[in-house]
Amino acid sequence: MSSNLKVLQVIPKLGYGGAETGCYDIAHYLPENGCDSFIVTSGGELLKFVDKKKVKIIRLPVHSKNPLLIFINFIALIGIILFNNISIVHARSRAPAWSCLLASKITGRKFVTTFHGTYNFNSRFKKFYNSVMVRSDLIIAGSNFIFSHIKENYKKFIDDNKKLLVIFRGINVDYFEPSTKLESDEKKLLKSWEIEKDKKIILLPGRLTSWKGQEVFIDAINLVNIELGYEAIYAVILGSDQGRDLYKKKLIRLCEQYRMTKQIRFIDHCKDMALAYKVSDIIVSASIEPEAFGRVVVEAQSMEKPVIASNIGGSKETVVDEKTGFLFESGNPKSLSQKILKTISMDEMSLKSMGTNGRKNIIQKFNVEKMCFSTYSEYKRILN
Questions:
Q1: Neighbouring-strand partners of residue 326
Q2: Which of 112, 125, 171, 357 makes an SS bond possible with 90, Cβ 3.0 to 4.6 Å?
Q3: How many structural domains compose the chain?
Q4: What share of the chain is helix, strand, coil (3-state, %, to 5)?
Q5: Hey, which residues does 285 pair with through a beta bridge?
Q6: By residue range, what is the domain housing residue 305?
Q7: What value does the mean pLDDT take over residues 212-224?
Q8: Counting beta carbons within 10 angstroms of the beta carbon of residue 113, is it exposed (0 to 12), middle (13 to 18) or buried (19 or more)?
Q9: 119 pLDDT above the threshold of 90
Q10: Are residues 9 and 155 located together in one domain of the fold?
């Protein structure tokens, strides 16, 4: 069976997000297990790392929501499926999923979707558009939170023949491993951030968009300063504004208002996130809307760092409160500041224990090998 399994994954762009890295990981896992692996995408930064000897890349404009291009992609996918004798088509986003759904039905191939987020559905049309993600033979939810969201909001689109299950996203725990980082690289990174390692560093990773909670974070740091003074900590907001320059200016003004411009660093990008976690003392995820999974707190736990996350969405599954980190009341700066102060006050032995528990938690539940094996097993199951 495994030697005949040919999987075509379709994703708009192969960037550094959770859906994209999941696609990349599965694509490379399949050839190691005697399967043929294909990716249809419009491009992306991760493409240069794909092993082209193992994974065949096909370029199509599958990032587009233009109905004409969706139709053209549908026709092209029929040809790709038939020419390569594809067994399974796996869509990881809504626009290409419509092309995949139609092409799978015409060619009689199995269709799989991974529901990576809650998606906006503030109109009937939007909900119908999103529903393509539950019109597959196998629907994969990236967390129990997403599983519940699908059951609650898309029940009428799911019939008894459709299988819905949870396969947790996984990360590369060998890459996110604290002992792999050199002290010289840590010093270089801190120098580039213009930070002396004489204070605690609190890191908030994530693109600059309001729902990621940067304003809550800045408000919380101000409350920490009221307790400890302005010289006790550094705070780093790590993420690109992706063109949202007005929002970034708003955040900078808030820092100026609190007189924290020398204390808070805005860093656009870091090519080695494991190193960013390593040099930091506390990692925060302050999202005010639910994270489908919450990759930041998973990666940070794998690096044996204490994490503090909003008590909504996927974070409630990935963080064991009081054991591998802390959960705070979403959108509440005071609650976040209290958890930061509590973590700062912990002794070395307690922090080490929290870090060890965090890494164990990730290895047991959220490692990439487990995700790939579970997905591969389900691929084989739906063909039988």
A1: 308
A2: 112
A3: 2
A4: 50, 15, 35
A5: 309
A6: 178-365
A7: 97
A8: buried
A9: no
A10: yes
Is 2's pLDDT higher than 60?
A: no
Q: How many CB atoms lie within 10 A of CB 9?
A: 26
Domain shared by 279 and 155, yes or no: no
Residues 203 and 344 in one domain: yes
For 305-367, give the DSSP string.
Answer: --EEEESSTTHHHH--BTTTEEEE-TT-HHHHHHHHHHHHTS-HHHHHHHHHHHHHHHHHHSB
What is the CA angle 186-189-192, rounded to 5? 150
pLDDT: which is higher, 235 or 19: 235
pLDDT mean over 62-85 = 96
In total, the chain counts a number of residues equal to 384
Q: Largest Cα–Cα distance of the chain, in whole Å?
A: 67
Q: Does residue 108 share a domain with residue 11?
A: yes
pLDDT reading at 225 higher than 80? yes
Q: Range with the lowest mean pLDDT among 3-7, 15-19, 95-99, 257-261? A: 15-19
- Read off the DSSP letter of residue 251: H
> Distance between CA atoms of 111 and 100, rounded to whole angstroms?
8
What is the DSSP pairing of strand 163-166 with strand 88-91?
Answer: unpaired
- For residues 211 and 144, membership in a common domain is answered with no
CA angle 364, 366, 370 (to 5 degrees): 80
* 8 A C-beta contact, residue 165 and residue 140: yes
Is residue 97 classed exposed, middle or buried when 0-12, 13-18 and 19+ CB atoms within 10 A define those classes?
A: buried
Give 91-111 pLDDT, tens digit per residue: 999 989 999 999 999 999 999
Question: Average pLDDT, whole number, for the chain?
Answer: 93
Cα 25 from Cα 17, distance rounded (Å): 12
Do 182 and 164 lie in one domain? The reply is: no
Identity at 140, one-letter amino acid code: I
Looking at the DSSP bridge assignments, the partners of residue 233 are 200
- pLDDT above 70 as % of the chain: 99
Whether residue 331 is found in the same domain as residue 204: yes
CATH of the domain at 268: 3.40.50.2000
Exposure string over 227-247, b if 16+ CB within 10 A, otherwise e: eeeeeebbbbbbbebeeeeeb
